[in-house]
Amino acid sequence: MSEYYFELTINPNKNYELFLDLLTSLTNNAIEELDGTLIARSEEDLSDVKEGIVQFANALNIECKITHEKKENIDWIKQYQQSVKSVEIGNFYIRPSWEEKKDDKIDIIIDPALSFGSGHHETTSSCIEAIDKYVNENSNVLDVGTGSGILAIAAAKKNCIVDICDTDDVCIKDTASNFELNEVNFKNSWIGSANKAVKKYDVVIANIVADVLAMISKDLKNSLNDNGILIISGILDKHIDRVLNKFKDLEQLELIHKNEWVTVVFKNN
Ligand SMILES: C[S@@+](CC[C@H](N)C(=O)[O-])C[C@H]1O[C@@H](n2cnc3c(N)ncnc32)[C@H](O)[C@@H]1O
């Protein structure tokens, strides 16, 4: 990428379409149209194009504001990457692939994508905290609403056997590539929710939203083994009582508050 680029703006007071046609014939670069102004950008100097437009406007006696500027190129990809930070949660270190891992931490790589779950949101980080504390090695785990797969990957890194589901098929695709990136595997995956589970689990995790958690509370509980652990999150504190009410037959082990978000850990006694 070159250090500079050139920007040509053309704002005719009439015959806009004629100027658009002329500019299109004079340059191979993409042309932006913004409120009656035509903008062409190129790493090549656009002085010749500017000269052609000036002569055209003069010949037709059309008033036209024209600017031609040399501007500093910004490496947008690099700038974006610099804005994505690693995060440390308990024994886990979650990082984008372009950052170095920490040798004394359990490494999780999540690159920014469309699916939710980079580790920065309070609900995700509280769930990771709960996984760190309550999930035993080699447990059977179901991640409901897996998003990027971050919670399931954290469990898989603790040698758990994990199943994942999400109502959004894009998440299921993203999750598969994130597992690959982290060199761990899931066992089963499906598009849908906990009601499609065909077995019971030692741990069920669901970071969704209060209303959905309340709605699927029976399915979440039905997928739990005796003595199984349920971690739910995505609950704004103003909705916590309503959600707790749906799970009052389980033992409440911990409430984790982060800002206005609450995560709850239950045991199925
Ligand atoms: C807040 S994101 C959580 C992503 C990730 N597990 C995390 O903790 O960062 C919630 C996810 O739940 C999914 N979802 C919403 N309703 C659902 C439902 N009824 N059953 C399963 N997944 C659902 C959404 O598609 C979304 O990917």
TrEMBL record:
Keyword Secreted assigned: no
Q: Does the keyword Methyltransferase apply?
A: yes
Cell compartment(s), UniProt? Cytoplasm
Which InterPro entries does the record associate with it? Ribosomal_L11_MeTrfase_PrmA (IPR050078), Ribosomal_PrmA_MeTrfase (IPR004498), SAM-dependent_MTases_sf (IPR029063)
Superkingdom of the organism of origin? Bacteria
Q: What does this protein do?
A: Methylates ribosomal protein L11.
Q: What is this protein called?
A: Ribosomal protein L11 methyltransferase
From which lineage does this chain's organism come? Bacteria, Pseudomonadati, Campylobacterota, Epsilonproteobacteria, Campylobacterales
Gene behind this chain? Answer: prmA
